[in-house]
Write a structure and sequence with these properties.
Blueprint: E1 27-30, H1 37-43, H2 48-54, E2 67-70, E3 73-76, H3 83-90, H4 94-101, E4 113-116, E5 127-130, E6 133-138, E7 142-146, E8 150-151, H5 153-167, H6 172-187, H7 195-199, E9 202-203, E10 206-207, H8 210-214, H9 223-233, E11 244-247, H10 253-257, E12 260-264, E13 267-270
Keywords: Signal
Protein name: LysM domain-containing protein
InterPro entries: Cell_wall_hydrolase_SleB, LysM, LysM_dom_sf, SleB_dom1
Length: 273
């Protein structure tokens, strides 16, 4: 959990080893029974070999529940959207939109990031070629990627580890919310301006995130946490701009005194007065 000058709230976190190639992927896809790299490639207008390269796969074996990075445009859901309207906007079938996102009900929420099948990721002029792969070059950090903020693979790794610890067992939306809080802090002038500096920040001698303090930040992240970190980095924020979060069993009066932005599962997300 997050701590402040007035509060220390303890939680738990875990570390991750991402084995990704330096490629400008734009979406993630969760494998379901009956999938093959060939079928997924057809859905996203690419090839099995390209997907293997994006995910550093040594063979074509995939399994249900596995999260793959795919070349695809993404769309961030806005108020008033529906799956039908999004499919119509991009000139694709509703079925293919559902399939690309494993989304078989009609519930979507503002800030949710959806894959757009049959497209290729668009990149701005800030992207350059690096050994045949499109990545953004930032002198101080090397190859970085464009989301709502720029980030490196190590940033994605660190954020996914934090999400695993802080929201393991919580709904997927809560996991994305944890990532979004970190990103909201990066963008807020009152906090450090990088993912690493936010997560490792100390206030009055105490770490802001307990998993850093107890070492759980060095344990592996779940596949779902990796996807949640990616979605948060690319604009999904079910907390609507929150800067803090804590478990609803917390008894600290200062935490509960802050304006509540969202409650997801057992997690409470708040603004800062």
């Amino acid at each position: 959990m997050l701590k402040s000058k007035k509060a220390r709230v303890f939680l738990a976190t875990v570390s991750l080893s991402l084995t990704l190639v330096q490629t400008a992927y734009a979406g993630t896809y969760k494998v379901v029974a009956g999938d093959s790299l060939y079928k997924i490639g057809n859905l996203f207008n690419t090839t099995a070999s390209t997907i293997m390269k994006y995910n550093n796969l040594k063979d074509t074996y995939i399994y249900p529940g596995q999260v793959l990075y795919v070349p695809s445009d993404t769309y961030t859901v806005k108020a008033g959207d529906s799956l039908y309207l999004i499919a119509k906007k991009y000139g694709i079938s509703l079925y293919s939109l559902r399939k690309a996102n494993n989304k078989w009900d009609d519930y979507i929420y503002p800030g949710q990031v959806l894959n757009i099948p049959g497209s290729t990721p668009t990149t701005g002029s800030s992207y350059v070629s690096d050994n045949g792969n499109s990545v953004y070059q930032e002198p101080s950090r090397g190859s970085v990627y464009r989301g709502v903020i720029t980030y490196s693979l190590s940033d994605l790794d660190l954020l996914a580890r934090l999400i695993t610890a802080e929201a393991d067992g919580e709904p997927y939306e809560a996991k994305v919310g944890v990532g979004a809080v970190v990103i909201n802090r990066v963008k807020d002038y009152r906090f450090p301006n990088t993912i690493s500096d936010v997560i490792y920040e100390k206030t009055d001698g105490y770490y802001q995130f307990t998993p850093v303090e107890n070492g759980w930040i060095n344990k592996p992240a779940s596949e779902e946490a990796k996807k949640a970190a990616y979605d948060a980095l690319h604009g999904s924020d079910p907390t609507h701009g929150a800067l803090f979060y804590f478990d609803d069993s917390a008894t600290n009066s200062w935490l509960w005194s802050q304006p509540i932005a969202a409650r997801i599962g057992r997690m409470v997300f708040t603004y800062l007065k």
